[in-house]
Write a structure and sequence with these properties.
Elements: H1 11-30, H2 39-42, H3 47-57, H4 79-91, H5 96-112, H6 114-124, H7 127-138, H8 141-149, H9 156-171, H10 178-193, H11 201-214, H12 220-245, H13 255-262, H14 281-309, H15 311-327, H16 341-362, H17 368-377, H18 380-384, H19 396-423
């Protein structure tokens, strides 16, 4: 295994960032992605986050995730809706100009993710894997799809999570407190953008502690400092939630609905979108009548009743969700396509990444268990709720690195075997 280089980031990597960003912005214009769908009063422009951002821009506060005037909300985490609201205030609510700025911001986040990908890969697998991984991310059309098409936190989350991963790798040998401060700040920002990533936090923290213990480095002071900063970052939002709801709400309160969207009559392991308040008039009326917290609790009650009454079905559906998370969600049953080529590529990439993780662990590669821990922990929520290709995207940088590592190793071994065979004397 190559030793990770400690030299500065090559200038070529920065040019990858620039060209990736430029090409993504060009694609926004070429494919008119800024022309968001006007149906349902522009609901597809940011969905629930867009509705909340509109409420903020109109001076109604962080409220009303489905329109109307349903009062204060914690249906979504605050970071991205506030970003959208700022753009709406400057350039207009649901305007083309706002769409341009938000999609361009997404593209910048996607392009910048190239840098931590390079640094993570170089530190764990060496320069060659790092260069190929950076190229693979910067010019990957699949990555561009999320940045130029979805007005959501979809490209911001991979950037933050990859930075957290990089800081964790550095903390195993770091002295002083700067790394702990950065670690806590990134986790706080990440939680306010996408709380789902917190599933990785316990494993990540334990991995750092174990590595530092093996290296003879103390961790108690750093852990206390990091924990304090993490909760200080979250505190304003938690206090706000307590003030508006009169009870403790941790970051967001839509778990009941999300759980029911995957666990109810007719569940097959996919999103049952027809139960969403924006698509179901009766559900929206319940949301208005019961209030956000009451509606969420009712959804949770109904879903858990279904699970208790159908434990075997829940187990089967959860296994399906596991498969769909890594294979890709199938098209609706009324599709005329006999198979979906995109799903085949999605599954192939998953197999390469998982195989690469197993190989890295077996070879005791630096940081291999951190990769494995991310794969084992981050997706778990979606095995019990419902899968979507977007839900795998936050860990796509690490999956890409693992797949590149595997492909280059296999290619190197094949080349060595071919050279050895060519060197054999003729009989």
């Amino acid at each position: 295994m190559e030793k990770p280089s400690q030299s500065p980031i090559p200038r070529s990597v920065f040019w990858l960032v620039v060209w990736s960003f430029v090409l993504q912005v060009a694609m926004i214009g070429v494919f008119h992605e800024y022309r968001t769908r006007p149906q349902e009063d522009h609901f597809a422009f940011g969905w629930e986050m867009g509705r909340v951002a509109r409420s903020i821009a109109l001076g109604q506060g962080f409220s009303s995730p489905y329109g109307g005037n349903t009062g204060p909300t914690a249906w979504e985490p605050p970071l991205y809706p506030y970003l959208m609201a700022g753009v709406f205030k400057l350039l207009g609510i649901y305007s083309y100009a706002s769409a341009w700025v938000l999609l361009t911001t997404n593209s910048l986040a996607a392009a910048l993710t190239t840098i931590p990908i390079f640094l993570i890969a170089r530190r764990t697998f060496g320069e060659r894997v790092a260069i190929w991984s950076a190229w693979g991310w910067a010019f990957n059309p699949y990555i561009w799809y999320w940045s130029i098409h979805w007005i959501w936190d979809t490209t911001f989350t991979p950037l933050i999570l990859s930075l957290i991963f990089l800081v964790a790798l550095n903390l195993q040998e770091s002295r002083g407190q700067k790394g702990w401060v950065l670690f806590a700040g990134l986790w706080g920002i990440g939680a306010l953008a996408n709380p789902s990533m917190l599933a990785f936090l316990p494993f990540c923290g334990l991995w750092i502690w174990r590595q530092r213990y093996k290296n003879g480095l103390p961790s108690v002071v750093g852990i206390v400092l990091s924990s304090t900063i993490f909760f200080l970052v979250l505190a304003p939002w938690l206090v706000r939630n307590y003030e508006v709801f009169g009870r403790f709400v941790f970051l967001r309160d839509d778990f009941g609905l999300q759980f029911r969207l995957g666990n109810w009559k007719g569940a097959e392991g996919m999103l049952m979108a027809y139960l969403q308040p924006n698509l179901n008039k009766l559900e929206f009326e319940k949301f208005q009548r019961m209030g956000e917290l009451g509606y969420g609790q009712d959804c949770k009650r109904l879903a858990f009743e279904w699970v208790r009454e159908n434990p075997n079905r829940f187990a089967v559906v959860s296994l399906k969700r596991f498969f769909y998370y890594w294979n890709g969600v199938p098209k609706p049953s009324d599709s005329h396509a006999p198979w979906d080529f995109r799903n085949s590529l999605f599954l192939a990439w998953s197999v390469l990444a998982l195989w690469g993780a197993v190989r890295a662990v077996r070879q005791k590669v630096r940081g291999a268990w951190l990769f494995a821990g991310l794969i084992l922990t981050y997706p778990t929520t979606y095995y019990f709720v419902f899968p979507h290709a977007r839900y795998r995207h936050p860990i796509e940088p690490e999956l890409l690195i693992l797949a590149v590592f595997l492909l280059l190793q296999v290619g190197k071994q094949s080349g060595t075997q071919s050279a050895d065979a060519a060197a054999l004397p003729e009989r």
